Amino acid sequence: MRLEPIAAPSPARRIVPPLLALLATFTVATLLALIAGGNPFSVFGLIVKGAFGSKFALLETLNSATPLIFTGLAIAVAFRAKLWNIGAEAQLYAGAVLTVVLGTGALGLPAYLMLPLCAIAAMFAGATLLLGPALLKTRLGVDEVVTTLLFNFIFLLFVSYLLEGPLKDPMGMGWPKSARLLPEARLPRLVEGLRIHWGFGLALVAALLVWVINTRTTLGYEMRAVGQNAEAARFAGIPVTRVILKTALLSGGLAGLAGFSEVSGLKGALTSDLSPGFGYTGIVVAMLALLHPLGVVLAALFVAAIFVGADSMSRAAGVPSYIADIMLASALLFMVLAILLTKFRVRRD
Amino acid sequence: MNNTTKAQVVLRLQGITKRFGPVTANEGVSFDLHRGEVIALLGENGAGKTTLMNILFGQYTADEGTVELFGQTLPPGAPRAALDAGVGMVHQHFTLADNLTVWENIVLGVDPLTAPRLKPAQAKARIRALSDQFHLKVDANAKVGRLTVGERQRVEILKALYRDAKILILDEPTAVLTPQEAEALFATLREAIATGLSVIFISHKLHEVMAISHRVVVLRHGKLAAERATNQTNREDLAALMVGSEVSAPSIETGAPGASLLSLRRVTTPDQGAAPGLKSLNLELAAGQIIGLAGVSGNGQAALSDLLSGLITPTSGEMEMNGTAVQRWTPRTAIAKGIARIPEDRHKTGTIADFDLTENAILETYASRFSRRGWMNWAQARAFTKDLIKTYDVRCPGPDIRIRLLSGGNMQKLILGRVLEEAPQIILANQPVRGLDIGAVNYVHGALAKARDRGAAVLLISEDLDEIMQLSDVIHVISEGRLSPGFGRGTMRAEDLGAWMAGHGFDAESPNAT
Fold it and tell me: Cα B318 to chain center, whole Å?
């Protein structure tokens, strides 16, 4: 078998494989639902109902999508420039740590100063964290996949240390948990009485901004050029190293915002289970969105809906909610295959 | 030559047709190859030579027609079958593993993976016998990475002979050789046909075709344009057949040298892997002149080109532009100083394949001309590209299509327009017409001559000696990173330049070089 590149893919070739990927994902999920003893139609029905069936369900889905939009954007921005940032998880925690450091009493400011300050600090923290691997890549050629991935574990242990030590809540009855944020450092609720908060609005704005950066600004043009063909970009005089560093700052900053949004909007305090892997799921989101910033919003909603819906489905139908993880994993695998099929034709020798 | 018509037919192509979407690469091509015969397959780039050979090799499946080897029809789309039947191919780009020795490369793939172990002594003895018989001098124990291009080619030929090839296909074998090395290759081929091998020789160099072949098969636009016995034709006839009509090349007069625009004094650059860097090189580029740089590929052309492009800086020596020393040397400073750069590889270095024409046209000047305070002015960029398309006759549907869909010639015209619009003082043209059809070649050469006439200095790097001799006012030869003195147009014959290309004459010229 050989793969033959297609010079000019037709519109059908660009649309059909991703649709097939979606279909294949649901086929896999159907089989699993059958094996688990559920009726596939009612399982999918319950997932949809659990994700969108009520005002509460819908807001819960939007809520869960919020951190995924941020990390998905962070990954999409980096991957576009072929900077393989696998460290959004650590960057998210860095943003959360700095939000907690500033927001639990170190500063006494009104909300309209406190919130922007915390957000900027969180972006700064995330950006700084990715700057190290980016510098190692541009200066010494160290593979950023390895450095960013491994740094996730180091930083998570560091967060555990902080929560057992300097940041531990003195009133926390011994739990590894930070003190609660001051009310001035909390993002307000979007709908009173429900968990949905302004982080979601911020995420939408971020997606729009990234889209504008990509298409309208000089940096966006440079980032795309470096990602598509670094050799040609360097030859043409584009400052490739600087563009990679700027990309790293933007990507890390977006991941840091995810941490800010989760702590300030949702949890109110830092624990070591703040993120159940949003940094990694962001990779899936970005890939499903084909790295398009507006597509990231849709992909994040899709992923969040599956998780939220699967939770309530499993309570009702008795099919384990792990089916959501499998659906996500197979969606990613099929999508990667689909992307390949939009660019190559399979030939048999 | 012996009477080949009575000899056994070893290969028969019949009515081969191959289409790629709307493009017909081959249409009804038929010819026979006899035992002990050399057929020259002649044609412009894009005439369908490579497609035809890929069909013969089973890489592509023909839409119509059959390939017969020794009377047996080849199953379509089975690469192994042609190899097993005794067809050996020497590609333009070698397919050798640099980190293995010569003999290892040669036996690689011959013995099945399940064979208990290799028998080096036996293999080496056989290789030695073959290399003696066919005058293919090469050390069987040497690492391929250390060999010269000419030696690597010999390894490729040995590889084919080791597999008992009865038909040898050579794809533009002389493109990387000096005239002397090419002569040695021809001696090998004569030896080969004397022992009953048959050869298909793909080329577009007419004098070689005349020297080595018995018959010439001319392809044009995928069709068989003509088939001639070599002794009943001549170069002019073949050129006309190949091109289709009498195409007149632009006549390039010599230019008078003006002020020195760029001078390199004792410039040395680091080696780039196997390719040598520059070795204490002196070069003067004067206004109003085309300076041709001849040489076998991989002798420092890349280093000189990278240096003028701003990609590398000298480790020692001085660079002066317009009388001032050059400092902080980057691609951007090179562009700002008025150096137009036409890179050797327009697909990988010159353009970004998935960018549209507009995005490619502004690649070098976006920062200074199409961007303000960090925002792109796409309307202006698009208008600029539309002008460029019109002025430089880029044939395309419009500025919004991806550049990968353009032919090589149109791609090159866009690059040419992109750099010439800046009214450059110095033009670095590295293999500017490689792979272009004759119309595009003439266009590019005409544009370079025009730029020269308005006072620019043009450095033309090419492996095609004919091109160099036709265009250049002054010719330098580069060999192992050293530069010969400049020779005026018409003062040197090709053979004399060939001697320099092979490295003769440098030691006497520069006593410091060892």
Answer: 31
Question: Are B115 and B255 part of one and the same domain?
Answer: no
Q: In CATH, what number is assigned to the domain containing residue B17?
A: 3.40.50.300
Instruction: Please tell me if residue B100 touches chain A, with a CB cutoff of 8 Å.
Output: no
Has residue B196 been placed in a domain?
yes
Instruction: Please indicate, yes or no, whether residues B128 and B30 belong to a single structural domain of this protein.
Output: yes
Q: Do A231 and B348 touch (CB under 8 A)?
A: yes
Question: Along the 349 residues of chain A, how does pLDDT read in single tens digits?
Answer: 667 777 667 778 778 888 898 899 889 988 988 888 888 888 888 889 989 988 888 998 999 999 999 999 999 999 999 999 999 999 999 999 999 999 888 777 888 888 999 999 999 999 999 999 999 999 999 999 999 999 999 999 999 999 988 888 877 777 888 888 888 888 888 777 777 889 999 999 999 999 999 999 999 999 999 999 999 999 999 999 999 999 999 999 999 999 999 999 988 899 989 999 999 999 999 998 889 999 999 999 999 999 899 888 888 888 888 888 888 889 889 988 888 888 887 776 5
**Which domain covers residue B233, as residue numbers?**
4-243
Residues of A in contact with B375 (CB under 8 A): 216-218
User: Do residue B364 and residue B439 come from a single domain?
Assistant: no
> Which of B212, B243, B274 is where one domain is finished?
B243
Optimal mutation site among B363, B365, B418, interface A, most CBs of chain A within 10 A: B363
Give the DSSP per-residue string, A151-216.
Answer: HHHHHHHHHHHHHHTTTB-TTSTT-SBBPPPPGGGSPPBSSTTSS-BTHHHHHHHHHHHHHHHHHH
Chain A positions with Cβ closer than 8 Å to B:
7-8, 216-221, 224-225, 228-229, 231-239, 348-349
Which residue from B minimizes the CA distance to A215?
Answer: B376
Please judge whether B341 and A235 are an interchain contact, meaning their C-beta atoms are less than 8 angstroms apart. yes
Contacts of A232 in chain B (CB under 8 A): 348-352, 363
Which residue, B214, B243, B272, sits at the end of a domain? B243
Number of domains in chain B: 3
Closest CA to B63 of B81, B76, B80, B79: B76
Q: How far apart are CA A66 and CA A307, in angstroms?
A: 13
Quote the minimal CA–CA distance from B401 to chain A in Å: 10
Indicate the residue of A7, A232, A234 with minimum beta-carbon distance to B351.
Answer: A232
* Token pair for B296: 């076998």
